[in-house]
Design a protein that fits this description.
With about 190 residues, the chain is α+β, with helices and mostly antiparallel strands. The chain has one domain. It contains 5 helices and 11 strands. The strands form 3 sheets. Strands 7, 8, 9, 10 and 11 form a 5-stranded antiparallel beta sheet that branches. It has a 4-stranded mixed beta sheet with strand order 1-4-6-5. A hairpin with a 2-residue loop joins strand 7 and strand 8. It is globular and about 55 Å long. The chain starts with a helix and ends with a strand.
């Protein structure tokens, strides 16, 4: 309530890795309940992140809920420091760099999270509101440079690859949200 009094729009951000069942792509039921409660209390949008993958988008009460937009900037190796136990876990001294620890963890980019191409794709979501309700939404696909060397990857760049848009079409359907892909952009199609 206080946020609504002090702003034109209220956007709630939540970091959540939890899932329902075994599917990383489906948000936990508490996250769906939380997002609905935020909108019910006046939020204009809920933006989720955490599982490093995109999840479906729901339009609830004419307001968007992004259950996960995946990664926007993904540069683990450029973090300056990690706690001592992070280095200990990989048998490294405290003199090692964060990049050394990540390379050890990923066996030089041959295992783990970073080996999945979908981790390195997402969207930039643009939506327009009028009188507190969403009037339009467009999703622009981005790439974070899968397969590039660590010093080149992790920064978002617009891409013409439609995989992430097609993926979001499927993931959003169970929430009743439809997207049409037009000229390399996914457009919210509430009438479809």
């Amino acid at each position: 309530m206080r946020a609504r009094r002090q702003s034109d729009y209220v956007v709630v951000s939540i970091h959540s890795h939890e899932i329902d069942g075994d599917n990383l792509r489906e948000p936990a039921s508490f996250l769906v309940e939380f997002a609905h409660a935020c909108i019910d209390e006046g939020a204009h949008a809920v933006v989720g992140h955490g599982p490093h993958r995109v999840r479906g988008i729901e339009v609830y009460r004419n307001r968007p809920i992004f259950y996960s937009l995946g990664n926007f900037i993904f540069q683990n190796e450029s973090v300056e420091r990690q706690p001592k136990d992070f280095y200990d876990k990989y048998g490294l001294s405290s003199e090692a760099s964060v990049a050394d620890a990540y390379f050890s963890r990923s066996a030089n980019d041959t295992r783990g999270l970073g080996t999945y191409p979908a981790i390195w794709e997402s969207v930039v979501a643009l939506w327009e509101m009028e009188n507190g309700e969403m009037k339009s939404m467009r999703l622009h696909p981005i790439s974070l440079g899968f397969g590039s060397p660590p010093y080149q990857r992790g920064w978002p760049k617009l891409t013409s690859d439609l995989n992430v848009l097609e993926d979001l079409q499927k993931l959003s359907e169970p929430f009743g949200t439809k997207f049409c892909i037009e000229n390399g952009v996914a457009v919210w199609c509430p009438e479809v």
